Amino acid sequence: MTARSLQEHIDSGDGLAHIANHARRLLQFQALLEAALPVALRAHVRVANFRLGKLLVHAANSAVAAKIRHLVPSLASDLSNKGTKVTQIEVRVQAKPARQLAPKGSRPVLPGNNQKQALTSLARNLPEGSPLKQALDGLLHSVRE
Fold this sequence. Notes:
This protein has 145 residues and is α+β, with helices and mostly antiparallel strands.
């Protein structure tokens, strides 16, 4: 009995092969969409699905969604010219979960002895009056207290 790769397992079953092919196609659409979008919008738009000529994309917020909606005719044309007939693009807002912030009043983790020694050594080797030396000296002074 030989070991099979994960890709072989995925491709072996009809249902899994269909899902894997669909996922590959969505990744291709993502690459095509990013190439067609202005640089500032690329990180804020994700392909969610493609079915029967309809491309569903998720925007990070309503401002991005509005900008994408203005670009829909040219995006559909660009994507169709790349080989896949896109008849409609639907844009939905799908906000990312908010990052967890540190609880109020908690202090950041202070550098350990090794880090303090390295920063002290660096500060000693910098020229007097250097802004970086002044910043390091201030940091080291606040860490010692």
